[in-house]
Amino acid sequence: MRLLLFVLGLSFLLLFSACSNVDLIATDSKTIQEHLSNYKGEKAVLLNVWATSCAPCVEEFPMIVSLGNEIKDLEVVFVSADFDDQLGKVKSYLNEQKVTGVSFIKNENDQSFISGIHPEWSGSLPFTIFYGKISGKMLIFWEGKESESKFREAIQRAINE
């Protein structure tokens, strides 16, 4: 019986990892900023810092994924603020939401991470920043959940700047 449970569990893990379409990278704020700079001149960027334990984060997440899929001039970058021991839960959630490509999970102490992402960020989640397509500069940011219309306005501005 134990062998059967082990084989079933192992099969589930292999199936789950084979279906994974997201690369979840543990990193610090400096590396995230370097990653964002790669899109200057190519795409506007929406950076969203979230956590699986944050209800407003989870509520707005599908809308952000949808906007990223819909708008070709937009790159959505997700950064999980979850703790290292939540890695499996984060990756599972990203896969459930059909996130593809690269996403990040912080591996830096909270205050250094917060300051490295944005000096005016209090650490409250969700936290969203928009970077201009042309300039690559940080244009708009906010803490908390916002409406789709506010996101669309910010995206349009980021695409044009």
Spatial extent as radius of gyration: 17 Å
Sheet/helix structural class: alpha/beta
Number of strands: 6
Secondary-structure element sequence? Answer: HEHEHEHEHEEH
Helix content: 40-55%
CATH homology-level superfamily: Glutaredoxin
CATH topology: Glutaredoxin
- Terminal Cα span: 62 Å
Whole-number tally of structural domains: 1
Uncertain segments of ≥5 residues (pLDDT<50)? Answer: 1-18
Please state the second-level CATH architecture: 3-Layer(aba) Sandwich
Oligomer: single chain
Distinct helical segment count = 6
- Inertia-based shape: globular
The major β-sheet equals: 6 strands, mixed
CATH top level? Answer: Alpha Beta
Strand content: 15-25%
For the biggest β-sheet, the strand order reads 1-4-3-2-5-6
Average the pLDDT over all residues and give the rounded result.
90
Question: What's the short version?
Answer:
The protein is built from six helices and six strands, in the order αβαβαβαβαββα. With 161 residues, the protein is of the alpha/beta class. A hairpin with a 6-residue loop joins β5 and β6 (138-143).
How would you sum up this structure, described in words?
The protein has 161 residues and is an alpha/beta fold. The protein has a single domain, classed as Glutaredoxin, CATH 3.40.30. Helix content is 45%, strand content 23%. A six-stranded mixed β-sheet has the order 1-4-3-2-5-6. Helix 2 packs parallel to helix 5. The longest helix has 17 residues.
Annotation keywords:
six-stranded mixed beta sheet
